[in-house]
Every structure is written in C-alpha cells, then in structure tokens.
Amino acid sequence: MDGTILNSIVAAERVWSAWAERHGLEVQAFLPTIHGVRAVDTIRNLALPGVDATAEADALTLAEIEDVAGIDAIAGAAAFLSALPADRWAIVTSAPRALALRRINAAGLPMPALLITADEVVHGKPAPDCFLLAAERLGQPIADCLVFEDTLAGIAAAEAAGAQVIVVTATHHGPLDTPHPRIADYLALGLDGAEAGALVLRDRDRV
Questions:
Q1: Which domain does 5 fall in, by range?
Q2: Residue 164 forms beta bridges with which residues?
Q3: Which residue of 5, 67, 106, 122 has the lowest C-beta tally within 10 Å?
C-alpha cells in the first residue's frame, strides 16, 4: 500500500522522526528502516532497553492515524484499481488495519473487498505469510498472483511466497537491486480483460 498505490512517506517520516528523536536515535540513519515492515518489528529489531515494542507501535499507529497531511495516490492507481474485478485483487500491507483504512481514504483510493493487514499474520514481511494469506482468501494459486511492491522487504516476501512481482518506483530515490520489471506509476498500465480466466495487463507505452 504505502509506496505502492499511495505515497505516505512525508506523513510517516514526520511521526517516526519525532519518535526517533525521543529515543535518542540518529533520525536520518533510522528512517530508511521503517518502510515496508510492521512498526512492531522495526521497534523490536532495535532492542532498545526498557522499550515495550507493542505499546510503542500502538502509540505510533495512533499518531499516524492523526497525521495524514500530504498523503496522495500514486498517479493512475485509482483508475487502475477501479478497473479490476472486485474479487480479483487485494491490498496487502504492513500497516495495522485502522491505519490502512485511514490512508486509503485519505488518498481517495477505492476500498478493496479484501484487505490483509499487519494484525492478521504472525510473521510480517519479508516473511511470505501475508501474500500467502491473500492468495488463499482470493481463491487463487500464489503462482498466478502478481504482487506490486516497492521495498526490498516486500519484494522478498512476494518472492518467498512464489508470486510474480512488479516493482513500483514512484517513491524511489535510486534503483533497487532486483530483476523484476518496474513501473513508475499506473498511468500507462491497462487491463484488456480475461483470457482463460487470467487478467491480462498491458503497458500502453510499449504497444
């Protein structure tokens, strides 16, 4: 979701920067570690003495729900998602459900029929659990699923699950080391229909 169909980097980094400063962390070195993974895992990995990772993650989520200024949809994402059959796509995010719903709404994106959030898996990205759960609930083999991702943790999770991957680069400052095809946004991506039950995507700039 974040960095894949919407851009919440400015809002997220405002909240996380304040948190990092309170805990004496070097903000600029810390911020790149927050993207694509669950907040509780980010905090847990720091192993800060006396810090309750779950309680801190809950407090951060509340702060992020309050701060949605500057959250925008990635170009073309709303039209692309609206063109997909409702029972054939899902949003799979490392955000808690309440925060995911708030950001989807703030970005003006269509709400999915299926939303898999941080609350629903034991192991977050880069573990494959979230994508496997989404495929199961969609009733599709994971090998037939296409995952749009923007972070190394998300790409690793999709690869481990066995899904196909497209990398969305809209929020990137430099290239990621990945062999997967890339798109900057969704403006040139179209949906032609179904062939033998499969949805067919087309890059209009390459036709």
A1: 1-207
A2: 146
A3: 122
